[in-house]
Design brief:
Blueprint (H helix, E strand, L loop, with lengths): L9 H23 L9 H5 L3 H9 L3 E7 L15 H11 L10 E8 L5 E4 L1 H4 L4 E5 L5 E10 L4 E6 L21 E6 L7 E17 L5 E10 L11 E3 L5 E8 L7 E5 L1 H13 L5 E2 L2 E5 L2 H6 L8 E6 L4 H5 L6 E5 L2 E2 L4 H8 L6 E8 L2 E8 L1 E2 L3 E2 L1
Parallel strand pairs: 5-21
Antiparallel strand pairs: 1-2, 1-4, 2-3, 3-6, 4-5, 5-6, 7-8, 7-10, 8-9, 9-12, 10-11, 11-12, 13-20, 14-15, 15-16, 16-17, 16-18, 18-19
Length: about 375
């Protein structure tokens, strides 16, 4: 019996071809669709103009700072250090007015943190200033005055006079930052106002040692390292995350290398800002000494026996330490029975005390142990 074949209708053939074409087209679209990868920040993929948007939003809060000073007061800043490591930072950047626009002037950056004109910058930008002039993005100029400053932190807060309704930069949380995240620097390098550069957060917890204007070597710990371009004049400007929040204050760059700049974490000053805006002053415990760690060589030289504690190098006159009788050459072993194992321990313990509180110091003086009672003082508003 012969098998009957059914005739295929033309409409069936057309329908089948349509389905095959639709399937192949769908597969092609899927194969060409880019897959999301962790290497591409989602925020940048969604908005390729994110950096431009942040610069436009935060830029008005970034200011150009000019200071005038007596030339004689700055002479010690010129090349007075033969150590190449210090020249590495000191001469090439840390004080950006090594090559000032004219004698008796220095320049830097800052960012506004309150509508009435409180502004954060670096201490070295306004150090010894006789006059401070702040220029906003619209070229409006105002005079300003120092409200709080600490050379040990290289931070200062100035107040723009007769200002109101000013744009404000939002502060973020530097503790939440991650190495490798994108960052943005805005400042006024070489008087080129509101220059925007980008990079990544290269590292956290960096430490550099730099001589100040008096020749004392200051240690700046816990700095943020970035490869965003930072140049003379950027000092005091903000380092931003991709949320447009300030996570650091640009402060120094290694001018003999490419892509090595440093910023102070914003969390180092957030509590100070809050207190200053709330009360008009900053009250912090203060001892009034310069001290250093003890290595084996120093311990042997001073016949200390071991490297425990920290050595007091000098005592500042009329401070809590001076009034209590602490002396240069004393080795601090304990404060309130808390052992001093490393350099940072002294500051950590003192910062946890209240102004006016009495603390007991165990010190070694000329080979003998003794206790000294110290009534903790209040830190001056301007520490130089």
């Amino acid at each position: 019996m012969k098998k009957k074949w059914q005739k295929i209708q033309p409409q069936h053939i057309i329908l089948t071809l349509i389905l095959i074409i639709a399937f192949l087209a769908g597969a092609l679209v899927v194969s060409l669709t880019p897959r999301e990868t962790y290497a591409t920040p989602k925020i940048a993929a969604n908005n390729p103009y994110i950096i431009a948007d942040i610069a436009e939003e935060v830029g008005p809060a970034v200011v150009y700072i000019e200071t005038t000073y007596k030339a004689s007061s700055q002479q010690s800043r010129r090349r007075t250090f033969g150590d190449s490591f210090f020249d590495f930072f000191f001469d090439d950047f840390f004080f950006p007015f090594q090559q000032p626009p004219q004698p008796g002037q220095s320049v830097g950056s800052g960012f506004i943190i309150s509508e009435d004109g409180y502004t954060i910058t670096n201490y070295h930008v306004v150090d010894n200033a006789d006059k401070i002039t702040v220029t906003l993005r619209g070229k409006d100029k105002y005079e300003a005055e120092i409200k709080w400053a600490d050379a040990n932190l290289d931070l200062a807060i100035i107040k723009i006079k007769d200002a109101k309704n000013l744009p404000v930069a939002k502060m973020g949380d530097s503790d939440e930052t991650r190495v490798g995240e994108w960052v943005i620097a805005i400042g006024n390098p070489y008087q080129l106002d509101h220059t925007v550069t980008t990079g990544v957060l290269s590292a956290k917890g960096r430490e550099i040692r730099i001589p100040d204007s008096q020749g004392r070597v200051r240690t700046y710990p816990n700095l943020m390292q970035t490869d965003a371009a930072i140049n003379p004049g950027n000092s005091g400007g903000p380092l931003l995350n991709l949320k447009g929040e300030v996570i650091g204050i640009n402060t120094a760059v290694n001018a003999q290398a490419q892509g090595i700049g440093f910023a102070i974490p914003i969390n180092a000053i957030k509590d100070i800002v809050a207190e200053l805006l709330d009360t008009g002053k900053v009250s912090r415990p203060y001892l009034g000494i310069y001290y250093q760690a003890i290595d084996k060589e120093l311990a042997d030289y001073l016949e200390l026996g071991d490297t425990k504690g920290v050595l007091i190098r000098s005592v500042i006159k009329d401070t809590a330490a001076d009034e209590a009788g602490l002396e240069a050459g004393d080795v601090i072993l304990e404060i309130n029975r808390q052992k001093i194992e490393k350099l940072d321990d002294v500051q950590k313990i003192i910062s946890g005390l209240k102004v006016g509180e009495e603390a007991t110091f165990l010190v070694q003086r000329k080979g003998k142990l003794m206790t000294v009672k110290v009534k903790i003082g209040e830190k001056p508003q301007i520490i130089n």
